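Subject: for your reference before the review

Hello V.,

The reviewers asked for a structural picture of the protein, and I figured it would be easier to keep everything in one thread rather than splitting it across files. Below is the amino acid sequence we used in the manuscript, unchanged from the supplementary table.
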Amino acid sequence: MKHTATELKQKQSLPLEAKIKMSITRIKAFYENLDGDVYVSFSGGKDSTVLLHLVRSIYPDVKAVFVDTGLEFPEIKRFVRSFENVEILKPKMPFPQVLEKYGYPVISKENAQKLEEIRNTKSDKLKNKRLYGDEKGNGKLPEKWKFAIDATFKISGKCCNIMKKNPARDYEKKSGLKPFIGTMASDSWLRRSNWLENGCNSFNSGKEKSNPLSFWLESDIWDYLKGFKIPYAEVYDMGYERTGCVFCMFGLEKDETDRFEMLKKTHPKLYAYCMNKLGLRKIIDYIKDRGIQHTQGKE
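And here is what came back from the structure prediction:
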């Protein structure tokens, strides 16, 4: 069942108490529809911490699953291990190998994929769509990022699939369990589009999943954590707003505070590994400097 942007806005404007009740309703519907064959996708971040608390407040025996990509803050890993009934998965390919084979995650997942397709596809039709858009102008790489077509390094949006999604999919095939996921429509354009298309619960065969926090906002997450006095990973108190993969460069050009400069202060060894071993310094400088110059030139 499709939804409208107006519906989403209305739900997002509701008080937290109402959102909790709505999320619980969706959690119960998903759990009962799948006869309890479910798990919580638990990253150790604040959103999935709220999700795990909500699900286990109703079904205390539901398993949590954490994908240890090797890219997380050490505080996140310690926090995850403080919970009971957590299964830890690992990707088949280490991150340095992903970078070497496919390329660096820069700008955003969607635009990194478009850049990868422009640079590598053998299809003129797909390449033209990514360069100029379809008949309605959709699907093209934004003009501000076209400079990256000529970058001397590989660019790809595949790392998330390889490092996180593939281990989860393999786990679901083996276990028969389907996930609760703590993403919100406000996180990105893609997640907003997914909610408009599917709502919170999807029961499509083989792709069953529940996103019961979809209509929450970040302020709701913090209000829930503080209101119910729920512990969260200490890395948030170091100044980080998001705690995903430490080495990820998605969204870097939008940061008001440079995550990697923060990393240099809070985790100097991780910072050195990023810059020296993974070669992120040249990538960051290229994307931020060229992107800023391009934007200024358009004003």
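For the response letter, the relevant points are probably these. Residues 280-298 form the longest helix (19 residues). The chain has a mean pLDDT of 92.

Happy to draft the paragraph if you're swamped.

O.
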